[in-house]
């Protein structure tokens, strides 16, 4: 069950509303927040892929703040374990 007040869930809802009003062009990458069942951010966040190229990924805490030393680029490095969900 989604909790409407979670920070990730609010971010996701705003992205979905924007998509309803904008024309999506395949040349642009898209960031859709990756939320857990409580509405907080999952550890790994990624932008959409472009063709066969995976979008960049990074690690965040449960409030969506990037973690120091977070992987970038293709984001193959694992996110640190901890309480970020």
UniProtKB/TrEMBL annotation:
<dbReference type="InterPro" id="IPR000716">
    <property type="entry name" value="Thyroglobulin_1"/>
</dbReference>
<keyword id="KW-1015">Disulfide bond</keyword>
<comment type="subunit">
    <text>Interacts (via C-terminal domain) with PHB2.</text>
</comment>
<dbReference type="InterPro" id="IPR036857">
    <property type="entry name" value="Thyroglobulin_1_sf"/>
</dbReference>
<keyword id="KW-0325">Glycoprotein</keyword>
<keyword id="KW-0340">Growth factor binding</keyword>
<dbReference type="GO" id="GO:0005615">
    <property type="term" value="C:extracellular space"/>
</dbReference>
<feature type="domain" description="Thyroglobulin type-1">
    <location>
        <begin position="5"/>
        <end position="79"/>
    </location>
</feature>
<dbReference type="Pfam" id="PF00086">
    <property type="entry name" value="Thyroglobulin_1"/>
</dbReference>
<dbReference type="GO" id="GO:0031995">
    <property type="term" value="F:insulin-like growth factor II binding"/>
</dbReference>
<dbReference type="InterPro" id="IPR022321">
    <property type="entry name" value="IGFBP_1-6_chordata"/>
</dbReference>
<feature type="disulfide bond">
    <location>
        <begin position="59"/>
        <end position="79"/>
    </location>
</feature>
<dbReference type="InterPro" id="IPR022326">
    <property type="entry name" value="IGFBP-6"/>
</dbReference>
<comment type="function">
    <text>IGF-binding proteins prolong the half-life of the IGFs and have been shown to either inhibit or stimulate the growth promoting effects of the IGFs on cell culture. They alter the interaction of IGFs with their cell surface receptors. Activates the MAPK signaling pathway and induces cell migration.</text>
</comment>
<keyword id="KW-0964">Secreted</keyword>
<keyword id="KW-0732">Signal</keyword>
<protein>
    <recommendedName>
        <fullName>Insulin-like growth factor-binding protein 6</fullName>
    </recommendedName>
</protein>
